[in-house]
Design goal:
- The chain has 331 residues and is of the alpha/beta class.
- The chain folds into two domains: 2-152, HUPs (Rossmann fold, 3-Layer(aba) Sandwich), CATH 3.40.50.620; 165-311, Beta Barrel (Elongation Factor Tu (Ef-tu), domain 3).
- 29% of the residues lie in helices and 23% in strands.
- It is built from ten helices and twelve strands.
- The chain has helices at residues 28-44, 58-61, 73-81, 95-98, 102-113, 135-145, 165-173, 177-184, 200-203, 293-311; strands at 2-5, 16-20, 47-53, 87-91, 116-122, 148-152, 188-193, 210-212, 224-231, 238-246, 259-264, 275-285.
- The strands form two sheets. It has a six-stranded parallel sheet with strand order 1-4-3-2-5-6. Strands 7-12-9-10-11-8 form a six-stranded antiparallel sheet.
- Helix 1 links the parallel strand 2 and strand 3.
- Helix 5 packs across helix 6 (135-145) and helix 7 runs antiparallel to helix 8.
- It starts with a strand and ends in a 20-residue tail after the last helix.
């Protein structure tokens, strides 16, 4: 997969099938849409193109209401690479882009920039200044500019509910990470550098932890204890882990720094300063305030035993995509 930051490198395209979206999380619904674009591109002998943006549009349009994202740009691009699409074009979403009319977007980006012959978008797709553009307008413009428009039905899960980034974010926020994984087609993943903690885990509790600060701007699961897969840096291995998310109520209180404290089962080594990835498999319990260190230690032992049993049911998944016990999503 080739990645272009802007339209300049797309001049060599002789024609393309383009799908457009934020693609936060690259969930099963996104994959169905991209799959349809790839199928059509293959049949027509054209390049398949995903057009996305360097940030969520709300960061410019409604900066006070930017949703916590499921993926940063690097992870989004890595996930898009697994879809088999030929080209991903990342546009900067700034004030100029936000003020661009729907007609200007079609003319500048889809026609002159990407030489679109077909455009595949979700049936609820909106674009252009004030979100005035929709699939109907896109079809009108396509009839003039010479491209076909496909309004693809929204994917649903087996219960008939839509598969959307908004819904996945809500599930993660509530700690329902197993349900989120079924819509993502993978485990929700957070990554960051291991930072020094209180060094209490190994010395006082007999269970050393690798501590991560919640990554800024990303969706962090609700406070609680989780079974996770932990990815060591540079492909050095994958370990089962029990992870506590929260403000450590036994020692602190509300308002204390939230941490992701990961105890890697069967691992011995120093991870300070290295980048660790955590993939959230299932929530075990909410955070609790214990009467003393002994009670906390006993709970941690039981948590680790539960996590080991839960993760024994799975083979360690691929470092980024991973295949959880999932649900299929279709139009």
């Amino acid at each position: 997969m080739e990645v272009l930051r802007g339209l300049e490198g797309a001049a060599g395209l002789s024609g393309s099938v383009v799908t457009v979206g934020t693609y936060d999380g690259v969930h099963l619904g996104h994959r169905a849409l991209i799959g349809e674009a790839r199928r059509r591109a293959s049949e027509a002998g054209l390049a398949s193109v995903v057009l996305t943006f360097d940030r969520h549009p709300a960061a410019v349009l409604r900066p006070d209401r930017v949703p916590p994202l499921l993926t940063d740009l690097d992870d989004k691009l890595a996930l898009l690479a697994t879809t088999g699409v030929d080209l991903v074009v990342v546009l900067t979403f700034d004030e100029q882009r936000a003020n661009e009319s729907a007609e200007e977007f079609v003319s500048e980006v889809l026609v002159r920039g990407l030489r679109a012959r077909q455009v595949v978008v979700g049936e609820n797709f909106r674009f252009g200044h004030g979100r005035k553009g929709d699939v109907a307008l896109l079809r009108e413009l396509g009839a003039v500019e010479g491209f076909e428009v496909v309004g693809w039905p929204l994917a649903t899960d087996p219960s008939g509910q839509p598969v959307s980034s908004t819904r996945v974010r809500a599930l993660v926020h509530e700690g329902r990470v197993a349900e989120a994984a079924a819509l993502l087609g993978r485990y929700h993943r957070l990554a960051g550098p291991v930072v020094p903690g209180d060094r209490r885990g190994g010395q006082a509790l007999g269970m050393p932890t690798a501590n991560l600060l919640p990554p800024a701007g990303l969706a962090v699961p609700a406070d609680g204890v989780y079974a996770c897969w932990a990815d060591l840096p540079e492909g050095a291995g994958c370990f089962p882990a029990v992870v506590s998310v929260g403000d450590r109520p036994t020692f602190y209180g509300p308002g204390a720094t939230r941490l992701l404290e990961a105890h890697l089962l069967g691992f011995a080594g120093d991870l300070y300063g290295q980048r660790l990835g955590l993939r959230f498999v299932e929530r075990h319990r909410p955070q609790e305030r214990f009467a003393d260190t002994a009670a906390l230690r006993q709970a941690m032992v039981e948590d680790a035993r539960w996590a080991a049993g839960r993760l024994a049911e799975d083979a360690p998944p691929d470092p980024l995509v991973g295949s959880p016990p999932g649900a299929t999503a279709g139009p």
